[in-house]
Amino acid sequence: MHDEDGLSWGRRYLMCPPSHFGVLYEINPWMDATTVVDADSARQQWEHLASTLRVAGAEVVLMEPADGLPDLVFTANAGLVNGNQFIPSRFRHPERQGETDVDVQWFSEQGFTVEWLPDGVSNEGAGDALPFGDVLVSGYHFRSDAASHAYVSRLTGAAVRSVELIDPRLYHLDLTFCPLDSRRAMVAPLGWDRYGLAVLENLVPEPLFLEDEEALEFCGNSVVVGSVVVMPACPPRVGRQLERWGFDVVVCPVDQFLKAGGGCRCLTLALDVHLGLPSAESTVT
Amino acid sequence: MKATETVEMQGHIVDSLTLAKVLDIVVGAGAEYTLDEVELGRTSSDPSRGRRSITADDDVALATLLDQIHLHGANRVSAGDAVLAVSEKDGVLPAGFYSTTNLPTSVRLAGRWRPVERPEMDCAVVVDDSGTARTVPMHRVRSGDRVVTGSDGIRVEMPVRAARGHAFEFMTSEVSSEKPQALLVAEVCRRAAENREAGGRLLAVCGPAVVHTGAGPDLARLVRNGWVDVLFAGNGFATHDIESNVMGTSLGVSLGEGTAAEGGHANHLRVINEVRRHGSIAGAVRAGFLGGGVLYECVRRDVPFVLAGSIRDDGPLPDVVTDVVAAADAMRDQLEGVGVALMLASTLHGIATGNLLPAGVQTFCVDINQAVAIKLSDRGTHQALGIVTDVGLFLRQMADRLCRDA
Known about the structure:
The structure holds two protein chains of two kinds.
Chain A: E1 12-15, H1 39-56, E2 59-62, E3 79-82, E4 85-88, H2 94-97, H3 99-109, E5 113-114, E6 129-132, E7 135-140, H4 146-156, E8 159-164, E9 177-179, E10 184-187, H5 194-203, E11 206-209, H6 212-216, E12 223-225, E13 228-231, H7 236-244, E14 248-251, H8 255-258, E15 269-270
Parallel strand pairs in A: 1-2, 4-5, 7-8, 10-11, 13-14
Antiparallel strand pairs in A: 1-15, 3-4, 6-7, 9-10, 12-13
Chain B: E1 3-11, H1 18-28, E2 32-39, E3 48-56, H2 59-70, E4 75-76, E5 83-86, E6 105-109, E7 112-117, E8 124-127, E9 133-136, E10 146-149, E11 154-156, H3 166-169, E12 175-176, H4 181-197, E13 201-206, H5 209-212, H6 216-224, E14 230-234, H7 235-247, E15 249-250, E16 253-254, H8 267-278, H9 281-286, H10 294-301, E17 305-308, H11 324-332, E18 338-344, H12 348-356, E19 362-367, H13 370-378, E20 384-388, H14 391-402
Parallel strand pairs in B: 7-9, 12-20, 13-14, 13-18, 14-17, 18-19, 19-20
Antiparallel strand pairs in B: 1-3, 1-4, 2-3, 5-10, 6-7, 6-11, 8-9, 8-10, 15-16
């Protein structure tokens, strides 16, 4: 049965309507600037995802889209939320750096305290950082610098576990890792090196390892609302395991967004994350 | 030349295994590291911090490796550039100048480590417009020279105590009289041969006792057979070498019979006088006045020699450089490529030479008095290995090993 001790976060999400979404540049292996996005279909898929999250029990709040910022729709990369604190992303690619002003304005208006990572380090927010248990699992390599993790830890008080991402197709942590509850998470070994997998072994008591094809269908890029797992795709093997654990699986096709290398998780940013200081009974190093 | 850089990592680097990963990468690349500072977090929630020095075979290998580990959060600790000050007067260094050691040294200029040319102790480092750094003794600095000051952006490579090989391994002290003589000679010969094979030059620094002990002919054999590439001595050694070959005496004492020759006390003065008549030692050789000995062989083989004068010198011989500063400069100019230095029963010239040698030159101090080797080491020539023995015996065995002719 699904662990009653579910995730302490994931009931409130920020989304951004895809009015200006398109594949206008190529900054990951999925993007092809000659691809045409079906705007109506994208809108429908996005609406479907938002309503599914609401039905599952989450609150969805919106930010205004902005012309010329097609990837603003991927709010997971806006930054890191920790209680009332917002740490804006330092985007690796100039194509996305214009999003920061829009993100910072929204969070300021909502009363968040904005705190900055230093210049010169890249970090792409919740796209590369997901809380699990006492720690913030943080990916580095393609979009975030390993060196940024120490600053994140200093600003938030979170204990970080750094994981190197090794497959450019799985360029963000949230394509390879999806916390399900306090004991379980989906993990794509395709995207992690052996040191990361060794860290995982000590961290996640019951991992659901995704096969390579499952990972490349973006199974890991799912949104968990309590016992509901909202997935871009769900192969039968994964679905059976999740249901065995007591989760309800809802598939929300987002193939228009997959053209830009983003799935369900990428389209959302959890606003109810409290990293805080870790509990005192952590094990000694 | 080996290259070293300091890097720092911080955060949850222990539990994330990123520290272990970086160290694995360093070792896997054939480089070495030392942990300079480590602050481990008390619990797995506390961040840790580690600072270590990484040494690779050369600058290129190091740069590649630093790029690799930078990915995992190991950042170069930015050492500042060396601070330069301009000399305002010939022969006067800016206050706060960096005083050199004889160890391999690099200075950081515009973010890059540059090796300092010709390491020499007790000098300053001057940087020219092309960014080349070299040691310069105080008297040679010129107004307008840019001189390294302070201690930022300067890196000194500590000597690696390389295994000295079997013959020297059992030496717990650097100086000892209790060693099998033949073994030590064999080892010095092996080093001399290796040095020659590698294209290095051999420097002999000679005291008068080389001649008094009857070893002149053996040293002459070594010169004749091409084992000596440059020779430093004083007026005394040169005079006795010439006296013994022209008159058969050393300071008036017959080298053959050990008895004082009649009127022999003036022999050396008469010899000096004749060489002065010929204008130089080479002139005396050309005129047929000098027909054998160490300096004769040097002249015949074009082996450069520097004779440095002192206040006690008789004559002196016309080749003797009586300005000590000019003499030290002349010696400096002959050190290029020297890989082995033999200090043969010479205290003053030995120490003077030691002051000029880079620490990388294999230096053997052969003297019956172990105080000489100790003094050499105390004055900073730490690489000097003392061999306490009779220099005459030593040179004979060495010549017998290395030379075919009798």
